[in-house]
Design a protein that fits this description.
Blueprint: H1 2-18, H2 26-29, H3 32-49, H4 53-99, H5 102-105, H6 107-125, H7 129-142, E1 176-178, H8 182-185, H9 189-194, H10 205-212, E2 230-232
Antiparallel strand pairs: 1-2
Helix pairs in contact: 1-3, 1-4, 3-4, 4-6, 4-7, 6-7
Amino acid sequence: MKRIVLFSLILFAWGFSTVFSQQVPADVRNNRYYLESVRLTQLAQESYSYGDFDVSANYADEALRYAQLSDEYVALQLKIKETDDAITAAKNRIAWAVSVDAPRAYPEEYGKSEQAYNEAISFRGEESWDEAIAAALRVIDALAYITSPTPVPAVVAAPPVVIAPAPSGKSVLPARYTVRSWASSKDCLWNIAGRSWAYGDPHKWRLIYNANKAKFPKPDNPNIIEPGMILDIPSVQGESREGLWDANKTYESIR
């Protein structure tokens, strides 16, 4: 009975020490706690095979302890990365807002974004990771509906522009969309394409991807989009599209 219990402990230690091998990058996974847990598990297995059950049990206990330390270390590193990614997205969004003169044109929204960004930096310094992420997301939300300023028309007179009416009596659909966080809106190309004001068909996600490929952090990877990105929504069936998507507006379905 003792041997069965001991062998189960060794197997558990081995499973604990390898649980992250398929979930995190190698540079985080192969931390010193993880490597020590693997070494101790191997010693526990060797001792067990030689019949040194007490020694094997001691090794197995230590392997578990180091595996738990590795677990805590990996969780912390992932949380830090999530925090830094959120703050970087917020910083980039503020830089874009400055480039379109948001401090002057949208002083209230820009002021809220600056305050939220400073809070995010402060929370990160205090290692309050979740609070820092929440503050960074407030930056994105505060600037979500800011658009580029309307270009100044040329001095030379131009013929009047005739705006074609929306087909079938439907309202004009949005031509651009500001990506929101996955936590709040489950934004990805598949979900965006499936929304009724886009295409009403998630299988058409590639139309959005092809129109915005150059904007992606990794242009060859359509799965990586960041909050604050403004995506063009190209017309697919001659529908009228204009302006930035507004959560306060009600759009008719494209279908």
